[in-house]
Write a structure and sequence with these properties.
Length: 472
C-alpha cells in the first residue's frame, strides 16, 4: 500500500490529509506528523482567546474548494449561532478558535471514519520530523523520538518561520520583559497598570496583542513600531468594479503594472470609493503575475510595495479596526514609523533602539516588549532542524528570493541540482517566494486539494474561486 507522509499538521497539512482521505478510491496510508502546535490548528487557529477573530468573512473560509458553503453549514451545527440569520452568518468574522474546531472536526471524521468501507488508513504522529533521506523512490523520515517513518511520498507543510530576532547587548532568553514568541502566554507577565508595552511590528500579530490587552482591561500605554508604520485596514462595503487587468499582465514589467494599479486607485478615489478595490481586483491574477515578474522586479516589489500591499490586502474586521481607532484617539496606542535596530536591557526597563525615517537614533523604554514582527521570510535563516538538514543535503533548495522552498507547478520540490523530486512536495507559506500570495485559507485550500488530486492521479483540479471580501 502506498504511504503518504505529511510533515506539519496546521491548516495546510491537515487539509492535504483530509483531501487524500475523502478523494481516494484506492487503499492508501496517510501519516500526519505534527509537533509543537496542536494538530489541525497550527499557529493561526490554536489561540484559545475569543477576541482573536478571523480576518476573512465566514463565507470565504470553507476548507473545501469544491464545497464553498461548507464552513457556514458547519457553523450552523453550533448553538451559539442559533439566533444569527444566514446572511449575518455568512458575513461574520468568527473567533479563530472556532475555525480550529472546524478543521479538527474534519480531521476527526477521517481519523475515525464512520464509513466501514473507507480505503484510507489515516494516523497522526505527535513528533517533530528532523530529516528526510531519499533512496530511489522511497523516503525515510527521522523523528525526534528516533523512530524512522518510511513513505513513498513526503509533503512539507511546515508553515511559517518564527519571527526573526534582534541584536541585543545582553542575552534576553531568560528576561521575562521580552517575549520573542507573541503566541506564548505573555498575559501572565503584564506590567503594572500605567506601564508601557512596546510591540515590535504593526501588522496582524500586533493587532491580536492590542485587542487582548483591552480584553484583559490592562490600562497603560502601548507603542507599536514598524518601518512602514502601517496598521491593517478594515474590511469595507465595496462596489461592482470592472476588470482592468489585461490578458498580457503576467508579461508586463513591475513599473507598468504599478502604473496601471495607480491609475485605477486614482479613478476610484475620484469616484469617492476605496482604492483597495483595485488591489482586490488583482487577486485572481496575483500568483500568475508574480511568476511572470523578473527576479529584479520581484525584489523591487518587496522593497518598495510589499508593506503597503500587505496593509491593504490583509484587512481586519470592522469591530477590531474600530477598537484600534479608539485606542489611537485616546492616546493609549501610539504608532511609530522607524527601523528597530537592537534591544538593550537595563535594570528598570528594556530599551528598543530605533532609527527614525529622518535617520535620527532614538531609544524607547518599555516594561514589556513583545515581538510581533511576523514570520522571518529568509530561508537561509531558518532555525528548523528539518529544513536546515534538507537544505544541507540538497533534498530541497531555496527559491530564487530565499523566501521559501523551490517547487515546480505541481508543488514538487526542486533539489539543489534543480531537478523535480518524484517523492517530495511542499505547500503553504513555504511557497511564498514562488507564488507570493500563499498565506490565507482561500489559497491554501486549493493547494491542499490539488496536491491530493495529483497524488491520486486524478485529472480534475480544485476550483479556484476568488470571493472578494466585502462586507455587504
Ligand atoms: C494569527 C494568524 C491569523 C490568521 N488569520 C487568518 C484568517 O482569518 N483567514 C485566513 O484565511 N487566513 C488566516 N491566517 C493565515 C493562514 O490561515 C495560516 O497562516 C495557515 O493556517 C497556515 O497553515 P499552515 O498549515 O501552512 O502552517 P502552520 O499553521 O504554521 O502549521 C504548521 C504546523 O507544522 C508543524 N511543524 C513545523 N515543522 C515541523 C516538523 N519539522 N515536524 C513536525 N511538525 C512540524 C508546526 O508545529 C505547525 O503545527 C492567519 C495566520 C495567522 C498567523
Amino acid at each position: 500500500m502506498k504511504t503518504v507522509a505529511i510533515i506539519g499538521g496546521g491548516f495546510s497539512g491537515t487539509m492535504a490529509a483530509v483531501n487524500l482521505a475523502r478523494l481516494s478510491d484506492e487503499s492508501l496510508r496517510v501519516i500526519l506528523i505534527n509537533g509543537k502546535r496542536p494538530v489541525g490548528r497550527g499557529v493561526a487557529y490554536s489561540t484559545t482567546r475569543s477576541e482573536h477573530l478571523l480576518n476573512v468573512a465566514a463565507r470565504n473560509m470553507s476548507a473545501l474548494p469544491d464545497h464553498p458553503t461548507h464552513f457556514v453549514d458547519w457553523l450552523r451545527s453550533r448553538s451559539e449561532f442559533n439566533t444569527v440569520t444566514d446572511a449575518e452568518l455568512r458575513e461574520s468574522f468568527v473567533p479563530r478558535k472556532i475555525y480550529g474546531d472546524y478543521i479538527c472536526s474534519l480531521l476527526t471524521s477521517y481519523l475515525h471514519p464512520i464509513d466501514p468501507k473507507s480505503q484510507v488508513d489515516l494516523q497522526v504522529i505527535d513528533d517533530e520530523a528532523l530529516d528526510v533521506s531519499i533512496q530511489g523512490d522511497e523516503a525515510t523520515i527521522t523523528l525526534k523520538s528516533g523512530e524512522p517513518v518510511a513513505a513513498n511520498i513526503v509533503l512539507f507543510a511546515t508553515g511559517n518561520q518564527p519571527p526573526s530576532t534582534f541584536p541585543c547587548d545582553s542575552p534576553l532568553t531568560y528576561d521575562p520583559r521580552f517575549r520573542p514568541d507573541p503566541w506564548s502566554n505573555w498575559a501572565e507577565q503584564l506590567p503594572a497598570q500605567g506601564g508601557h508595552i512596546v510591540l515590535l511590528g504593526t501588522g496582524l500579530t500586533a493587532v491580536d496583542v492590542i485587542v487582548t490587552l483591552a480584553e484583559l482591561k490592562w490600562q497603560g500605554r502601548i507603542t507599536a513600531i514598524s518601518r512602514s508604520g502601517l496598521l491593517p485596514r478594515p474590511h469595507f462595503r465595496g462596489i461592482v468594479y470592472p476588470d482592468f487587468i489585461p490578458e498580457n499582465a503576467p508579461t508586463l514589467p513591475l513599473q507598468e503594472l504599478a502604473k496601471l494599479v495607480q491609475q485605477q486607485c486614482q479613478r476610484l478615489e475620484r469616484m469617492s470609493q476605496n482604492p483597495a478595490i483595485a488591489i482586490d481586483k488583482i487577486r485572481p491574477y496575483t500568483q500568475r503575475i508574480w511568476r511572470g515578474l523578473s527576479t529584479e522586479d520581484k525584489k523591487e516589489f518587496l522593497r518598495r510595495h510589499a508593506a503597503r500591499w500587505n496593509s491593504i490586502r490583509h484587512r481586519i474586521a470592522v469591530s477590531i479596526h474600530q477598537h484600534l481607532t479608539d485606542a489611537l484617539d485616546a492616546q493609549r496606542l501610539e504608532i511609530l514609523e522607524a527601523t528597530i535596530e537592537s534591544l538593550s536591557a537595563c535594570d528598570d526597563a528594556l530599551k528598543v533602539n530605533l532609527r527614525t525615517q529622518g535617520d535620527e537614533k532614538r531609544a524607547v523604554a518599555a516594561d514589556l516588549v513583545i515581538n510581533c514582527t511576523g514570520p522571518d521570510t529568509r530561508m537561509s535563516h531558518t532555525d528548523s532542524p528539518l529544513l536546515r538538514n534538507l537544505l544541507h543535503s540538497g533534498v530541497i533548495s531555496s527559491d530564487e528570493l530565499n523566501m521559501g522552498v523551490a517547487v515546480n507547478d505541481d508543488y514538487q520540490t526542486l533539489t539543489a541540482a534543480g531537478e523535480a523530486s518524484t517523492v517530495c512536495y511542499a505547500i503553504g507559506p513555504l511557497l511564498r517566494g514562488t507564488l507570493w500570495e500563499t498565506t490565507a485559507v482561500p489559497e491554501l485550500r486549493v493547494q491542499a486539494m490539488n496536491f491530493a488530486q495529483s497524488i491520486l492521479q486524478q485529472q480534475e483540479r480544485a476550483p479556484q474561486e476568488y470571493v472578494i471580501e466585502y462586507c455587504i
